Amino acid sequence: MVIARESPVWTFTKALRRTKITESHETRRSDPATEAVIDLPRHYIEADGSLLRGPSRSLKHGETFAVFDNYGDIGVVGTGPDGLYFNDTRFLSWFELLFECTRPLLLSSVVQDDNAALSVDLTNPDIHRDGAIILPRDTIAIERTKLLWREVCYERIGLRNYTDDICRFRIDIGFGADFRDLFEVRGSHREKRGKTTVTYTDASVEFSYRGLDGLTRKTTLTFSPAPSKIGQHRATFDFELGPHQKTSLCVSVQCEDRNAPVVMNFARAFRAHRREIRARTANIAEVDSSNELFNEFCKRSISDLYMLTTRVDHGYYPYAGIPWYSTAFGRDGIITAMMLLWIDPSIASGVLQYLAATQAAVLDPSSDAQPGKIMHETRNGEMALLGEVPFRRYYGTVDATPLYVMLAGMYFDRTGRIDLITKLWPSIIAALRWIDTYGDMDGDGFVEYARQSGSGLANQGWKDSYDAVFHADGSLAEGPIALCEVQAYVYSAKLHAAKLARHMSEHRLAAQLTAEAEDLKESFDYAFWCDEINTFGLALDGHKNLCRIKTSNAGHALFAGIAKPHRAHRVAETLLERDFLSGWGIRTVARTEARYNPLSYHNGSIWPHDNAMIALGFARYGLGRRASEIFAALFGVTKYEDLRRLPELFCGFIRRPHRGPTRYPVACSPQAWAAAAPFGLLEACLGLELRHASNALCFVDPVVPEFLDYLTIRRLRLGDSIFDLELRRHGMEATLKVLSRQGDAKVMLIK
After folding, report:
1. Tens-place pLDDT, residues 86-103
2. What is the maximum span of the chain, computed from C-alpha positions, in angstroms?
């Protein structure tokens, strides 16, 4: 929808996207220099603008999230993901505050420490009339506070006159709603769309969009006090403030697609949001240390994780990331829950139950669904509901199913909750059956993938870029493809399932699974080990040829424990070489490889969660000190990151003096598994093991990272026991002190 302008002095700039994705599997784009046609994947995220054009500010609650610029506005400069979203649809695409038809001066902009609200301080610019300044800058303080509660965005705009004179001024708010599907915002073109109508009253404006899916979506803006003038895309307010007088203006933006949300006043919504945050985080373990920057880093990570965690029918689920992935992803949710098990095992409980409830029960090639398979992602937008994209409930992931079984076993180790395992047992058995049947269609003992739908993902491991699996000469591998890390996950899944089977008194199944895991370990070593690159190869292609390239995937073999000890130490040596370890972390692909590109999504970039999983793998094989090197590298990133937040990924350029890391242009931030990475890294360095079966909290050869003198962990729970602990670094050694204890669990320092 083109936004009409009601006044020649009212100047808003909106750049319209004119991008197109064809109906075929590939996007065909002409290179203006060569006129050559470049094939790009169907679901490629276009980048007419960068998410890094200026500091963006993100908030989320439930199924609603928002991306603002650092003024608190939406859609003012260029293209991008700015907007207020609900159920994968942008309900507000433009929202701009002007002071006397001019953008205010920005003073500060920060998302509050607990992510409850965005706080922005502004002031008026110099206001001229007839060549003279009639209102000097810095006269009126403008304080914007924005928050999300359920399906409503609330804003309070505080205004204060700091002079001894009466000040009269005008505030204008411009707004628009394009009801674009998230995939349209990402770059997809649609030939047809629904119809939007706009109505307004003295104090509100309603945008109503009747979609092609038959659903009516509404955006309602309500103003208090009522504006002096209102139109379809603008509300004008005339203020007169006496000396040192203050007042406020409140705006609510309501998103509706099926049921109208309850709208409350700003103060009540703020209190409700704060109470919910406190309740959700009241019982989790808390980390503190001698390093204030590290403390900020951990607090922001926790705030991000619990902002992204969403109440679903079966508990809480960590949605993957903002803006592109604010929904349930199987793989992301599982890995996030794994790294948070020691902090808060309730996240794993929610993930396991939700994924069991959404586990595929039938064969459906259009969504890559097969009985027993764990979901990749789910979407609720118009394009998904119409089948224009296959992601309404999509199963195109090869690793989520074994990871799901792994998480079930890890959760039982942590909590001993056999009641939940009993409830999940049918879904665990279904997942194991998928691994042995649909996962291994050729019966060679390895789990492979080959997409069933032409509109789905070509690659279905965690590196799901179209060019992420290749041979040493750079040629792309042809499927079906058996990834290195997937075999490792299957190995671990079968061992965890065997343990659970014994507790379920299914001893024959337990013995069978254990034997299958040991057979897989031997065949994996034979097929994937590559002496010439001193690590495991990336994958076997459809002809059973090994992709002999050095990638971070091999580190996941250590994470899952499939590597023989002497192999594990050689893999670690390779991953810590300068071709991998950039100084900011371990790259996804070594810089010696044919398709290495530090600017790419998966072929040379650095992912925090990938590094955390590798560090956990190092710790498994007694390499805690090497794990601390990875932690130190990633912690160095936070010195340069806005809000001390690790992004989804960043570019793989080598660390250089006096410069920070290079950001990736369309990385999500916050991202759940990136926010969980610090706790996975900390677990690896401390050798932390919570053993419910033996009622013991163990620190196995712990290493306190070099950037910390001491580390305190409070409210660490094991069964009915609660501990406050302190670990202190003494040169190369670490000491452990129990500050307080409730319950009878043992604490052990194992050297």
Report:
1. 999 999 999 999 999 999
2. 91
Q: Of 74, 58, 61, whose CA–CA distance to 13 is shortest?
A: 74
Sign of CA pseudo-dihedral 459, 463, 469, 474? positive
Token digits for 520?
A: 């897989």
Q: What is the 3-state secondary structure (H, E, C) of 438-500?
A: HHHCCCCCCCCECCCCCCCCCCCCCCCCCCCCECCCCCECCCCEEEHHHHHHHHHHHHHHHHH
Look at the pTM and tell me if it is higher than 0.85: yes
User: What's the pLDDT at 77?
Assistant: 82
**Which residue in this structure is represented by tokens 């926790």?**
302
Which of 240, 256, 79 is closest to 163 using CA atoms?
A: 240
Could you tell me if 160 and 144 are in contact, meaning their C-beta atoms sit under 8 angstroms apart?
no
Return the half-sphere exposure (C-beta side, CA atoms, 13 A cut-off) of residue 74.
25
What are the structural domain ranges in the chain?
26-276, 284-323+576-751
CB-based contact 477:554 (threshold 8 Å): no
What CATH class is the domain 26-276? mainly beta
Give the side-chain half-sphere CA count within 13 A for 548: 10
pLDDT of residue 79: 73
Q: What is the pLDDT of residues 281-295, one digit of tens each?
A: 999 999 999 999 999
For the chain, which residues score pLDDT lower than 70?
1-54
- Convert 386-425 to b/e letters by CB count within 10 Å (16 or more is b): eebbbbbbbbbbbbbbbbbbbbbbbbbbbbbeeebbeebb
Structure tokens at 639: 């010195």
